[in-house]
Amino acid sequence: YWNYNNSKYNINIIDTPGHVDFTAEVERSLRVLDGAVAVFCGVGGVEPQSETVWRQANKYNVPRISFINKMDRVGADFFNVVDQIHDRLGAIPVPIQIPIGCEDNFQGVVDLIKNKAFIWDDTSKGVKIVEIEIPDDLLKTTKEYRYKLIEGVAEESDELLERFIEDPNSLLEKDIIKAIRKATIEMRITPVLCGSSLKNKGVQMLLNAIVDFLPCPLDIPPVKGFNPFTKKEEIREVDENSKLCALAFKIATDPFVGRLAFLRIYSGTLKAGSYIYNAS
Fold first, then answer.
1. Could you give the angle at the alpha carbon of 178 between the alpha carbons of 175 and 183, nearest 5°?
2. How crowded is the C-beta side of 82, counted as CA atoms within 13 Å?
3. Selection from 187, 228, 237 nearest residue 65 by Cα
4. Is 246 helix (H, G, I), strand (E, B) or coil?
5. DSSP state of 135
6. CB neighbour class for 127 (10 Å; exposed up to 12, middle 13-18, buried from 19)
7. Nearest 5°: CA angle at 107, between 209 and 51?
8. How many other C-beta atoms can be found within 10 angstroms of the C-beta atom of residue 132?
9. CB 74 within 8 A of CB 42
10. Per-residue pLDDT tens for 235-245?
11. Quick count: other Cβ atoms within 10 Å of Cβ 277?
12. pLDDT digits over 218-231, tens only?
């Protein structure tokens, strides 16, 4: 769990393939998620099924972070995939990292928020991250994309915009993160990161980005539902002390445990062994 705004919440991770054979699983998962990480291949980019899943996420208003994976494969092109996210999905991708090298030479990333470069120690299988100077051949690109990032962040509030006009370097790291989080939750942008998950490169930073930019339950509008008794629409706030409101989104049969029902709880509390009314 994380502690955000002095409130503790569990982080439940649902991993579902984007393949067309699992469309129903994707639909069920997106129905109950607060946020999602869209994973794109650094070589294949935005494929037809990526468009389908993206539209499903739009349908359920799920904020997203984009992760361009397999940057160590032959033919990987980070900026080409970023362009595809914009052109094919109609999204506004905002790179918060740019890769250091690609294919066999993929070593690390430049963090545009921190304005620092990081590489992974191969001997530790990507666990150890080392800060280095930004490579000379990436200084121009880093400056260009960092300026675009800060310029976009400044547009999130009049105060930040005034500070940006006076001095673009006056925006602090916490200001940038807060503005990116706001725009991500409102589904106006999708922050873009990159790495190679097979070699554990970039995964740590992706997990940090999930906490920094994707919403906690308090950031999501309260759920609305139809009361089968009163025939009226009701709203359930995120409160463990209110009436129970949950959605069973998956039924599975385990050979050892038996039949299992996976629920997304929107309000209230559900204890093991208790009985609840199935409104459907």
1. 125
2. 18
3. 187
4. strand
5. P
6. exposed
7. 50
8. 13
9. no
10. 988 888 888 88
11. 7
12. 888 888 888 888 98
